[in-house]
Amino acid sequence: MSSDIKRKVVLITGAGSGIGRATAIKLHVLGAILAITDRDIFGTQETYRLCGGKPHYWGVLDVTNKDDISIRIAEIVSRFEHIDHVFNCAGINPTTYALTDTSDEYFDSLMNVNVKGVYNITKETILYMAKGVGSYVNVSSICGLRPKNGFAIYCATKYAIIGFSKSMALELGPMGIRTNVVAPGYIDTPTNAAVVEGQEAVKAMVDATSLGRMGTAEEVADVVVFLMSKEARYMNGSVVEIDGGIKLI
Ligand code: NAP
After folding, report:
1. Can you list the domains of the chain with their CATH numbers?
2. Does residue 2 have a pLDDT over 70?
3. Which InterPro entries does UniProt cross-reference here (predicted)?
């Protein structure tokens, strides 16, 4: 993988678990300087520890909390002067929820974290992004590309991320800041719906992939880091599916 990631400053939200943590570890191994953030202090500190501590930064940041965001971004910029890449990874993975059972609170929580959280972080960081080499990677899902029964609100948030990110790509492209999207399929993280629901649900997910297994957080991290790297320098507004071939079945 590209050596141009070395010493690049990368902000990750939702870095305290799953895909965000795996991406932080990969970037650390490649020599990036990380701003590791999550709303969960223990997860954030554990990722910081797994990445070897200094020179990285860690901070508690809830992407729905404007105060958290302005304080943390100010700390990050005062320490590293700029940001090269942002991985907007914080998100809520829900389990199956029929529309007859969902509440306004549930709708608001998914929208606030999965959509408005990405908007909040993007808006606060744009001015500090490195022009010419900078990029955003946002996280959609296969649920942002096709409907899934029992996941209407989650699908709405992940479809929204694709529209938002493609518009970011148009608007920020002329500044030399790229925006791309990863759309993971069934990834084995603690909050994946099937992992939460149990063995039967996991088997159904596995059976739906042509590779016959769930993906790992590291397999998503590999693509995220590629999208940040100079090898992806002509990619802007792309949506990369990482799903073991779900669409083929
Ligand atoms: P994960 O292991 O649960 O990690 C998500 C992290 O984000 C958690 O540490 C969580 O903290 C944090 N978070 C949640 N709300 C936050 C907020 N308001 N502010 C800051 N941090 C917040 O989940 P994951 O599977 O790695 O998911 C990462 C992203 O990938 C999400 O956007 C998810 O929708 C997407 N995705 C996942 C899959 C999959 O199969 N796993 C598939 C497609 C897309 P708490 O523990 O406190 O909630």
Report:
1. 2-187+218-241 (3.40.50.720)
2. no
3. NAD(P)-bd_dom_sf, Sc_DH/Rdtase_CS, SDR_fam
The rounded distance, in Å, linking the Cα atoms of 204 and 202 is 5
pTM higher than 0.85: yes
Pocket test for ligand 1, best of 21, 39, 143 (most atoms within 8 A of CB): 39
Residues near 163 by beta carbon (within 8 Å), at least 6 away in sequence:
none
Residue of 1, 11, 246 whose CA lies nearest to 121: 11
Residue-wise pLDDT tens digits, 141-179 = 999 999 999 999 999 999 999 999 999 999 999 999 999
Say what percent of the chain tops pLDDT 70: 98
> CA geometry: angle at 12 spanning 135 and 78, to 5°?
85
**Ligand 1 geometric centre to CA of 174 (Å):** 30
What is the whole-number distance in angstroms between the Cα of residue 18 and the centre of ligand 1? 7
CB atoms within 10 A of CB 40: 16
Answer yes or no: are the C-beta atoms of 36 and 15 closer than 8 Å.
Answer: yes
Annotated catalytic residues are: 154
